[in-house]
Structure formats: C-alpha cells, structure tokens
Write a structure and sequence with these properties.
Length: 405
Amino acid sequence: MPIRPPRPAAPGTSRTAARTGLAALATLVLTASSSTLPASVPVAGTHRPPATTAAALHRLVADGAPGAASLVTRDGRLAASRFAAAGVADLRSGRKIGRLDHFRAGSLTKTLVATVVLQLVGEGRLSLDDRVADRLPPGVPLSGAGGANDLRRVTVHQLLDHTSGLFNYTDDPRLAARLSGAGFPAHRYDRYTPATLLRTALAHRPTAAPGTAFAYSNTNYLLLGLAIRAVTGHPYAEELRRRILAPFGLRGTSFPGNSPALPAPHGRGYSRIDGHQVDSTAFDPSRAGAAGEMITTLGDLNRFFAALLGGRLLAPRQMTQLRSEKATGGTYGLGLYATRLPCGMTVWGHNGDINGSYAQTAGTADGRHLVSYRVNTDAPAGRTDGTAVLAAEFCPPRTDRTRRS
C-alpha cells in the first residue's frame, strides 16, 4: 500500500516506555520548545566514539532491499555529513546509490505540510480548533457514507494528529489493488484529484468519532493540503516551496504533481507484486498529493529536520504544539513523532513509504545530530532492521556504555 502509516516502536518497546522516553518514531512529545529541551532528552555529544550505519544498511540489503543509503549529520555540521551506501541503485546496470540521488519520500511529506499549517496558525490565519469544512475550497465534498462522515465535525488539529476518524483512502480495496497490488502495472499512470480521493474516503464509514481515537489516515493530509490552498490562495506545494524549500536551500526537493518522472540523478525503485520484482520507478504521484508525493534527497531531509527541530521554522508555541501527543495517548504529534531506541535514546522525525521507496529521518531533539536513510523498495523483508540504522548511529557501543557507567 503506498503512503503507509508510520512503523511502531522498536521491537520490545511498549508505547508506554516510548512515551516516558519521549516516544517511538510514530509519536511526539509535548512540552519543550526547541530552545527548552527536557532534561531527560539525551543530546548528541562529542566524546562518544563514532558509530557506523554501514552494517545496518547491509542488513537491509540482505533482507531484500536492492540498495540502502544513509546520511549522518553531527554537531549541526551539515556540510560535513557522512554518506554510506550498500547494494545497488539499479539491478540491471549495477549502479550504486549516490549521495545526491533523488527518491520518493512518501509520508515524510506530511511533516512539511504540518509545518506550514502551524506557520499559518502562528500567523493567526488558521486555528487548530477550526472546523475543516470552513477551511476548504469551494466544491470539495463535505460528507458521505449516508451522513456518517461530516467534515463540519472534524477540526484541523484532528487532521494533523490523525484523530479525525476519517477512513484512509489508500485502504479502499478497489483503489489499493490499483495503487500497489496486481493492478499497479496497468494503472501506474492513472491520474487522481484530491476531490476524487476524498470521495473514496467519505464513501466509507468513519473508523471512530472525531477526536476519540488515533487512526493513521492519508485522507487527513489530503485535506490539509486543500486547507492550505484555501487559506493562502496558493496550491500547497507552492506554499511549501516559498516557506521551506527556497529559504532553507532544499534544492533537491520537489512536488511533482502529475509528473511520473524523477529528477536526475536517480536510481530505480522496486516493488514486489505477486512474488515478482517490479520496477516501480515511474508512476503518477497524484495518488499521494499532500499525503506523500514529495521527491527529495538525503541531504535535503537532514537540512529540513535540522531547521525544524532547531526552532528555525516555527515559533516556540507552535513547536510545543508540533510535539504534543496528548490527544493520541503518546502515539503521534502534529506531523512528527519520536522513537525510543533500545539503548533508551529518543530521536525525533518521520518516515515515508510509497511505491518503490522507503525513507526515514530521525534526530536529537535539538536537530544537531541527524540520520536520514532510504531503501529503494517499498516492501523489504525484515523492515524492523531499519531501527538498527538509528541505533547504530545514536546508541553508544556496549563497551563504551560499560566504560562510562
């Protein structure tokens, strides 16, 4: 299924444990702004010997990913970021993954969308308590499923933290078979509009009453993209370019709309369908829109999360809102979540999963220590080894922990 929800906490890590340490790469703690960090949050130090992500990347390849790559930033030194790769970017040519390669980022798009929504909140142009129905362009459907869905009962906040109860349109069986199942090759270039995808979602009954339960739904961010357009008068992608990409130098990031191609340089993306490896590099990304259409690079992901976690994109009040997971019981904040690693270290970020690509970024609460990694398939076996990439970078070796205890 393209644009899949965030992965749960690391194996053996309960949601309660994740929350007490600041959560799991699908949560987000609530109190501190970027300039006032909780004392319990470990921040990357300069005395720990360097860890390596290379072994974890090779495990991802051994588990079935054709290729894997990571980019590590330490002490806020983006220009000195360290790149590592394993496997290949192209099974036919044997080309290796390059540091500047573009790839599809899936639901990592959501963090940028949430950032712009919170900027609009900080500017007084939008409120988290606003009814969604009041913040949409004319002509967008507002209800469905015999009246069970009603966007006049859903708030902007509930879209951001996935407590709206709205059905996830990518879970519609007929659509899912076209987006990522056996029907993908024949339907890869189908074009969708947000209104069409929204109608698909509203044709299903809600998963819960608004505000009562967390249920990850791409429909929520589809609507947030429409809300940005209604409030600003510009398409959401244009606002993201103006507010984030241009000022922070994210030159490798784009929102392709209906274009099926990836910018150069890039490798290939692969999906396993009915037991066969299918090249899924090219397809119409309108299926994802504001929920997951973004194309980016590892360097741009580190630059963005360094700016976001470092407090350069949002005011302190909005940073607190961004980190708040209160409404989801420690499961998800407003477009950002945290993962507690096996060593007790907690890191913040998001992941993304779409046809032919999986990516994740995580960093310390101040954004000075970051790792972004990717694989060029959407369904590698043993995906939980992705946590090993984070642990390799953020957790000190056992011998070092013993020496320091």
